[in-house]
Design goal:
Elements (H helix, E strand, L loop, with lengths): L1 E5 L5 H10 L3 E5 L3 E5 L2 H10 L5 E10 L3 H9 L13 E8 L6 H20 L12 E8 L2 E7 L21 H11 L6 E4 L6 H11 L20 H13 L9 E5 L2 H11 L8 E5 L12 E5 L12 H15 L4 E6 L2 H6 L6 E7 L2 E9 L5 H6 L1
Parallel strand pairs: 5-6, 8-9, 8-11, 9-10, 11-12
Antiparallel strand pairs: 1-3, 1-4, 2-3, 4-7, 6-7, 12-14, 13-14
Helix pairs in contact: 2-7, 3-4, 5-6
Length: about 375
Amino acid sequence: MQIAVRCLQGFEFLLKQELEQLGVTELKEGNRVVQGSCELVDLYKINYCSRLALRVLVPVHAYSFASIDEFYLNALNFAWEEWLDEDTTFAIDPQVSSMQFRHAHFASLKLKDAVADRLRKVYGSRPNVDTENPNVQIHLLVNRDRVQISMDSSGRSLNQRGYRKSGGEAPMNEVLAAGMIRQSGWRGEKTFYNPFAGSGTLLIEAAYVAFNWPAQYLNRSFNFQTWKNYSDSIWKEVLDAAHNEINSNTTVKLWGSDIDEKQLSVAWKNIAQLPKPDCIDLVRKDFFEDGIEHENEVVFINPPYGERMEIDDLNAIYKQLGHVLKHHYNGCEVWIISSDTEALHAIGLRPKKKLKTLNGKLDCEIRGMDLFSGTMKSYKTS
């Protein structure tokens, strides 16, 4: 089958790499999406294991239309009975940019009527719409006079891992954290340290990588399980294979810190949901007053941005952050994400890699840098 896997902006090439490892072929990058071909087993595997996918769509019907009536009739003539039973509840997720429709809700209503009318003809009764918890989620994309209808195999956004019991202040998206870690290349070889730990998302996603837990290890419910072609034996095969790959014996050190006691309390509640909650250490301390000499660590920093927090002089804070890194993190690799590029420059460290993405609605940049003593020339020749 053909699939379209949604992702965060800027993570397309990272998702493509991950999908290749998961068995997807004929991959093509788009804007916040990677398209490809896969078998049913791969579809299940992507939903359960992918750390970078937000949603996995299966395109099933595409057509052009010149009027609202033509839009409806084309949808009505599709064999919806191959996907939905008479007692199946469904919902429409619309994304519409067309002069034919005043708003996306109108297009959604027309498609809903087409699906319901088709199934009433086939089964003799009209199925129910459930916008809160549908058995089947149908994705509708209308671009001018073109329609693409897809079945949503995920049901919920896959950044929802199941461990977040409390978000705290400005929580980081789980997929963003996973992408930041993947961009770094870290796989558990070195100590992972996360100052400004917040709700613990970076630390928890690092634990998922270190132990190779499937991204949805705490979730076992997906919309593909309600489809008429669902195979329970294939699903069990995927679960068994993924669980056999778990690395329970890793000894990597994962630790973080934050000055805010309330944020640490939130992080502890989230960490407590993990299969191995004692794999992460948290301490309360001020990053700027640390005084500890850090060596051979991979450091992931999600500092204050300024948009969500009132900060008088963000540049001064970032400059101080750079000062601490230069003097106390010799031999470490540092990855920082921020929406304030001017403040990032104030850190005063030359990045080896940059990646632009989004954190919520904020344009952000991820920067990676190596810390060393002496000159760049002597570092490269050492």
